[in-house]
Write a sequence for this structure.
């Protein structure tokens, strides 16, 4: 792994850990979890992050603590069409919301697994599982590039705005393919690029950990899924972002970390129409 990869991985883990610590502290104080932005940043007080907000119906999401701690960019459990008795793996499970929802959908004959590299997030997720009384959910420590599960062990792989953070997306997709049973499904919510962004922005760590700079072009995502062995790969945009959304995101950036000569207004201009939240589907052939 290169120094840049090391830096990105460390920054991602630190931001996830910080978000989990805030949520744990607030829950210990009997308060609501803080408003957080994509991938673990703390948003300004009173703000609503345009990437992470509004993906779940409160009527369909009884796990209040896990919902408050959600950092995703979609709702893969709703789009994956999970069936009773299936086994599901959530890559980068964070506070555990999608695992708990999956466990409820697959019922007692199925199991929902959550994989996360951050101990603090695993502690938060386990607290949410215990509070919800969900018995068919299990949380694992490890990386999404090297999943600690045997071959052909799950029916569905889900993820929520995490694969874009990986330094080695090819490895993630190969691992997803490996752990799926024949006929299994890849059903992921993620941020994708709809057009290239300036190379200078690819090196801005804050934009990478903010779920943008590390994102794949939609066509590249499909190609990489095919290279990993998947069939019928597709990308469906689920949320576009208006210029006002980009301006709100830019306010969270440190202008001193931008490339020389680039302003926050330049960042907004470069990202306008460049990315979206999407649902990414594929399947493993039935042998």
């Amino acid at each position: 792994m290169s120094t840049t990869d090391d830096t990105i991985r460390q920054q991602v883990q630190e931001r996830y850990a910080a978000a989990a610590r805030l949520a744990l502290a607030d829950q210990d104080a009997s308060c609501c979890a803080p408003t957080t932005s994509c991938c673990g940043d703390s948003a300004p007080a009173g703000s609503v992050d345009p990437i992470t907000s509004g993906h779940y119906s409160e009527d369909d999401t009884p796990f209040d603590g896990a919902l408050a701690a959600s950092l995703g960019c979609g709702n893969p459990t709703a789009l994956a069409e999970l069936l009773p008795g299936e086994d599901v793996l959530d890559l980068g499970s964070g506070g555990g919301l999608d695992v708990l929802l999956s466990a409820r959908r697959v019922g007692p004959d199925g199991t929902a697994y959550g994989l996360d590299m951050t101990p603090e997030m695993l502690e938060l997720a386990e607290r949410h599982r215990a509070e919800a009384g969900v018995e068919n959910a299990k949380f694992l420590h490890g990386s999404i590039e090297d999943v600690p599960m045997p071959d052909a062990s799950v029916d569905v792989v889900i993820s929520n705005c995490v694969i874009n953070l990986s330094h080695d997306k090819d490895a993630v997709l190969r691992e997803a393919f490996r752990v799926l049973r024949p006929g299994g499904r890849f059903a992921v919510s993620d941020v994708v690029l709809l057009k290239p962004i300036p190379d200078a922005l690819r090196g801005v760590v804050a934009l990478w950990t903010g779920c943008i700079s590390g994102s794949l072009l939609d066509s590249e995502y499909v190609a990489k899924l095919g290279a990993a062995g998947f069939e019928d790969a597709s990308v469906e945009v689920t949320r576009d972002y208006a210029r006002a959304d980009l301006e709100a995101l830019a306010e969270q950036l440190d202008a001193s970390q931008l490339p020389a000569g680039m302003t926050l207004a330049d960042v907004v201009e470069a990202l306008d129409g460049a990315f979206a939240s999407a649902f990414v589907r594929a399947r493993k052939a039935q042998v």
The first strand starts at residue 87 and ends at 91.
